[in-house]
Amino acid sequence: MLLIATFAIAFGAPAPALADNAPAQVLVFQSDDPTAPAMSSITGELRESVRVGWSGPVTFKLEFLDLSWFDTPDYARELRRFYRAKYSSYHPGVIVALRLDVLRVVLDLRRELWSGVPVLFLSEDRSAALAVPAAPDVTGIWLDYAWLRTAESALRLLPDTREVALVMGASPWERARHDGIARDLGPLADRVALLDLARLPLAELDRRLAALPENAIVLFDTFYMDGAGDRFVGLQAFERVRAQTQRPFFSVHGVGLGKGIVGGEIVDYRRVGRDLGGLTLRLLGGESATSIPIRAADANALAFDARELALFRIPEDRLPPGAEVHFRVPSFWDLYRRWAAGAAIAVTLQTTLIAGLVIERRRRGRAQAMSDAVLASMVGFVAVVDKTGVMHRTNRAWARASRAGAPGPLDRVAEGESYLGAFRRAAAAGDAGAGRVIELVEGVLAGRDVEGTVEYRHDGAERWTEVRARRLSWKDGGAVVSHFDVTGRKRAESQARESLSALSHLNRVAAMGELASSIAHEINQPLSAVLTSAQAAEILLRRAAPDVAQVSAAVEEIVAGARRAGQVIRRMRVLLKKGEAQRERCDLNEAAREVAQLVGNDALLRGATIALELAPDLPAVRGDAVQLQQVALNLISNALDAVSGRPYGDRRVIVRTARADGRVALVVEDSGEGGAMDDLERFFEPFFTTKSEGLGLGLCISRSIAAAHGGRLWAERAPAGGVAARLELPGEAAPEER
């Protein structure tokens, strides 16, 4: 349970000072279980303080006297006999006595075995510490157990309290402490009823605690033994009695904070250990113990458990000034204020952008539908020509157009006139498109082609005609030539291409917009360096005798900064550039590296890390570099989103490449929680998303790109609990392997 003045730790040095790196021997005597929370805190901090502060090796020997349970003359006599035999040939540098009853045993042993060795003790209260009989080379500190101030703090927090119950054990050591604690609480008698529940059998204590009224509080000390003689270690007794009542518990022992007490003016046993460690280092450094005054330990603090305050509905504005509140659970807004505000702004912007895109798409769809209707209503022109290119027959539409004056080479060309002759005249006049029509028709008439199609633009006019020629299987040869006015269609296709290009550009800009802040920061750094170097060069050049070397160095820095900025812009341009898909040799390692560099700053802003594990000598793949980078960007961006809910330090994304049975693999693994999903294939369904924003099309599009490249994309559970997205593409054999 809450361990009390059972704790003291000390280190000493013999009268002559040890060298800074000399080995030091420390012998520690303690009364109670060294594994109890308070004792463990003190000894742990003491060891660490001395280990860090002393340059040489330090050896600790710890002895457990168990005086709280066994305090008879016979036991004390046997202890002394045992330690005289054990340490007859051992000479420590410092002896530590944990508690004053331990100090008495230590001083008796020192007279016989360790004359002149300094002793450092820890006392459970001030009066006992100051009453220690004068002895050479002895110093120590006492623990200030502020029972009255703790009770007053409790009454401040719970002003309706009418009863204060004191609970503590019945061991000889606790019986000796009881009267002092009761005396400290005496001034409260005129404000509340004081109920003494010390030294009771545990069963009786359980009954009394269960009967406490709602306006009662409990002050809990140590509990090594109950009134029936049953013994307890650590927090055993506290955990049991705490379960018997719903009343708030207060204590002066720091080990109870977080275990069920509301708080109080606690003794922080870790600070006790550090205080003792500092005194030990002074003794090891040769300072006389007699010259160090006995004083209070620097270990008290007003501390409270936020969870217990909430349980008993105690508002924090009632806490005493300077009080510390531990175990406070931060609200979502406290944790993610900036992220939530940023997400709200991002959602608003994305909603606006998506609405605009939907409206634009509908408008373009209507335009496309109108273009299709125009194309469907157009009438074609058909003519039959012989093997020399002379027209023998035409349809009515051709005839009407010929009489009205058809645009281009066929103006006023009717049946019986040369089709090829009209286009030859146009070609001779400089009509560049006429030659392609001549080549098509002559190839079909000569038998080189069965059929063919070309699109012909009338020279000097914004009119297009689709010319189709099909060879006739007649004995005399010939062909059917059809003209379709596709001007409307060509215009619609041009508009559609422009619309698709604009929409694609907007989509890429939207994707890059999520990285805008990190990219701006990445560009700003080299540009700032360029500006600084340029200003320096300007100053140097204005001198009467410029230092060419310094100017050259400044120019080199300008060039280096410009190149760094150019690299960032180049990576952006690669992803944002327009154009049709190309098939070329692509390096998957380079694509992963480029995208990782592009999102690097965004990962830093998210508190995430991106680790690259790229296989050397990775075969190339054939495909469109921009599309492959788009897949990598989608996978890495999704991985960064997946780890955003993890604690800092656990937000990891691993990007690796590898050979896989003649194929090349790109794997993006995250440490998020997506691996808990039953069906990972849902990630690739259109419009499926686990985020509050986005359309859920990124992975669906990425899988389509993978399929278009002859590969596949899927997700699997990662060993760390997250998701590993795996892209496999056919690899190209190296020249020497072909």
From TrEMBL:
Residues 1-19 form the signal peptide. Residues 518-733 form the Histidine kinase domain. Keywords: ATP-binding, Kinase, Nucleotide-binding, Phosphoprotein, Signal, Transferase, Two-component regulatory system. SUPFAM superfamilies: ATPase domain of HSP90 chaperone/DNA topoisomerase II/histidine kinase, Homodimeric domain of signal transducing histidine kinase. CDD domains: HisKA (cd00082). It is an enzyme of class 2 (transferase). This is histidine kinase. It comes from Sorangium cellulosum.
